[in-house]
Amino acid sequence: MAIQPLTTQGLIVSCQAAPEDPLYGPEFMVRMALAAEQGGAIGIRCNGRDDIEAIKRAVSLPVIGLIKREIAGSDIYITPELEDVRAILEAGADIVALDLTNREDRYTKGKALIDYVHKAGSRVMADISTAEEALQAERMGVDYVSTTLSGYTPYSPQQEGPDLELIASLRGKLSVPLVAEGRIWSAEEAVAALAGGADYVVVGTAITRPQLVTQRFVNKIADFLSQTQTQARLIENKGG
Ligand SMILES: CC(=O)N[C@H](C=O)[C@@H](O)[C@H](O)[C@H](O)COP(=O)(O)O
């Protein structure tokens, strides 16, 4: 099947569940991907051979595939090895996402992985955590750069929200499309990322991990209730 690159700017929905999530498994992730397509997403990002294969069959959107896998003694877990790239391509992904941070021997290994994907006729999305890594990834010939790993390497800013500064710092500096990804929880943040210079926005947890969305509501409500109860106690004490 011909590969589908990303075309029009817009929202990519990351449909990924961890093994401990109630929605773990391809049947649930396919439903998430179909819901994202129905809602107007322009691409799907997903993890693992079975999910990639099932989602690619079910939706007509470009699919960005990755394999998350922990290897003892290594910090690289997004598509670490050539065997992962092969599995992603066999599963039918249009674009392969891989870690291109400045860690371990990633630039040596990364070049071979990029070449392999290109020879197979597919494209590469580099997951990076800093502007230097984004520029290095572009020099290495990737097709898209994504801010996925900002906040997940020890030397990138650790923050609650998306790394809009990283996006702003790359404005006008890349010739390949820039993807804003990581901790985007609202439509306003997605628009801010696009206004700041991103071409695409990936949203995962806020759409496809309902237990974490629920927890966010629960925590905010608990904060509110504890504050109002403290206020009520203060008023009571004053009155007494
Ligand atoms: C850091 C890492 O491993 N990110 C992974 C990359 O594929 C996924 O776990 C994220 O869900 C994805 O990047 C979307 O981000 P968010 O879920 O924050 O919208």
From TrEMBL:
One Pfam entry name: NanE
Gene Ontology terms: biological process: carbohydrate metabolic process; N-acetylmannosamine catabolic process; N-acetylneuraminate catabolic process
Cellular-component GO terms for this entry: cytosol
Gene Ontology molecular function, alphabetical: N-acylglucosamine-6-phosphate 2-epimerase activity
Top-rank EC class of the record's enzyme: isomerase
Keywords: Carbohydrate metabolism, Isomerase
Reactions this protein catalyses: an N-acyl-D-glucosamine 6-phosphate = an N-acyl-D-mannosamine 6-phosphate
Entry's EC annotation: 5.1.3.9
Pathway terms, separated by semicolons: Amino-sugar metabolism; N-acetylneuraminate degradation; D-fructose 6-phosphate from N-acetylneuraminate: step 3/5
Position of the signal peptide: none
Role noted for this protein: Converts N-acetylmannosamine-6-phosphate (ManNAc-6-P) to N-acetylglucosamine-6-phosphate (GlcNAc-6-P).
Recorded family membership: Belongs to the NanE family.
Stated name of the protein: Putative N-acetylmannosamine-6-phosphate 2-epimerase
Organism of this sequence: Cohnella xylanilytica
